[in-house]
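Fold this complex.
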Amino acid sequence: MSRYIMSRVLQAVLVLVGATFVIFVITFALPGDPVQALAGERAADPAFAEAIRARYHLDEPLLQQYVRFLAGALHGDLGQTYSGQDVAQMLGERIWVSAQLAAFALAFQIVIGVGAGVLSALRRNGVADTGVRIFTLAGLSIPFFVTAFVLQLVVGVKFGWLPVAGTEDGFLSYIMPGFVLGSLSTAYVARLTRGQLAESLREDYVRMATAKGLTRVRVVAHHALRNSLIPVVTFLGLEVGALLSGAVITESIFNIPGMGQAMARAVYLGERTTVVGVVTVFVFVYVVANLLVDLLYAVLDPRIRYA
Amino acid sequence: MSDTTRKGNTMATEHLLEVHDLQVEFGGEDGPVPVLRGVSWHVDRGETLAILGESGSGKSMTAQVIMGILEAPPARIGGGSVRWNGRDLLGLPEAARREVRGQGIGMVFQDSLSALNPVLRVGPQIGETLRTRLGLSRGEARDRTVELMRQVRIPDAEQRYRQYPHQFSGGMRQRAVIAMALALSPDVLIADEPTTALDATVQVQILRLLQTLQGESGMGLVLITHDFGAAASIADRVAVMYAGRVVETGMVRDIFRRPAHPYTKALLDAVPRADRRAGQLAALPGQPPVLGKETSGCPFRFRCPLAETVCEEREPVLSEHAQGRWSACHLGKDVIAGVLTAHS
Ligand SMILES: Nc1ncnc2c1ncn2[C@@H]1O[C@H](COP(=O)(O)OP(=O)(O)OP(=O)(O)O)[C@@H](O)[C@H]1O
Ligand code: SF4
Ligand SMILES: [Mg+2]
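Structure:
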């Protein structure tokens, strides 16, 4: 077991280093001169340009810059924006905003997705099942920015039940964007759960559980659901990564000051340090989530634990 | 069990478990496909009934109907009754049927590997109903479970209690499944091919175990098997199934000496005499009939060496050809007498 954890952690570190390197290379190979971008319309003053280049080490070879970045990142230093703001500090504030949004989205996926999946697996071809099928089809086929605008218009503007955008209203502010961010995968989670549970219910050990005289609730909850949820948990873990990239759009639509919004702005302004910083955090979260899923998998399935 | 008791039981109106004229069909593309076409048999306390028949004859289906775990739809129970201690189970509401499961009738599934939940520890699985049904405390259930595990001869029961199914060998898993089925001390145990996936020595051990457990508790035992040898070694009576029906039933030694149905005879002939005990049913020439096609006449007639015109005209019903010798064959008497070829 501990060997399994060790090897998984090692893998995670390798992925982290490899992925940041690729991002680094890509961002720095992008066209456009940051010095020129800063100077705006005018031609940059050579002395100013020189100073900027030296300050951001732009003249160093790429590899050297990367090593510098890596060394900094290890100490929690992600560099500075061109306006002199500390990237790590800025992201440190934004990450909690994004985390709350992601938590809402995940909560929707678990409660609604798993709930609807279980319901429709237990009442196959019943009214609930048909309802869930239509709902998931809609969820899967309507682009989520459309859902976002419709909700903003109806729930936010017309009825005024929830804030349209921003985070001034705390908890309430996150409900609509959280739902939108989670909606696509909620539908998928519902389908996955339904399929897995329907399959489990046909397994011999589930029929045996019935045959030995357990109640239906006990059979489903204790015997069928547990196995069915293993792939769902895996999916949700990987989904954390997808939620981050989805946040880039959702946070922009709902004007939420999170990592995604910072990323969108940075790309627009050509703020390379910020882009690399955000992506590094994204990759880190993604890798850690994957690691946790693998460990959770081992907890849920003894066949892996003892392999 | 003595002959007099047996006669007593046949005369009694109530058997411990009795299946009568059970009919089950599946909704197929071109109309319903019958898989059980009037299955009848019974078993009494302390008695072992072996149900024999080739693959697809409806043995497991019958067991599923009795337990109430048939997936319906697609299956549909078309008629018949399942009586346990005189109560018709098919008419009972689900909650009442659940009471019967485990406590009245226990079942051991065909495949021991898939009958255990792979993500739960073996001990708690065996003892689960002790807690949910009998309301024992965790500690009490544990003690009782370890005792059950010892009873089915699982060595190191205390350590084994905490292990997972994949840490058990095939034979040990089957013992665990048997312990699970026996947790609530059922009146009847239905064991569906409990030895199929196991190697020969383990098969014998499991059969002996079932026999011993039955002797200790006096429960009725229904042993579903392909293995004539197994049936011969532990059963009192046999019911032979063919194409969704019981085609012969009677005392095991009568049937072994002189079968009353050509199908039974073919099965017996297919087992080499010398090691009949361990022998599996060898394949018979020809195929079992495709059910669902409009059947008239005897379903065995395409493979039967004795088939006559009458066999095409009418399907024979299970009837008594000699004292205690029941078979569904127009020529049952001839078969018992050993006439081996067609008259005409
Ligand atoms: N879901 C289903 N749909 C249609 N037919 C089915 C279905 N399940 C089982 N059957 C049919 O029911 C018949 C009886 O099956 P059953 O499992 O009872 O056979 P069995 O005697 O137990 O065979 P085996 O010795 O292989 O276990 C078979 O002919 C099978 O094809
Ligand atoms: S009824 Fe006819 S075909 Fe059927 S088993 Fe008897 S002899 Fe053979
Ligand atoms: Mg079977």
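The CA atoms of residues 59 and 224 of chain B lie 7 Å apart.
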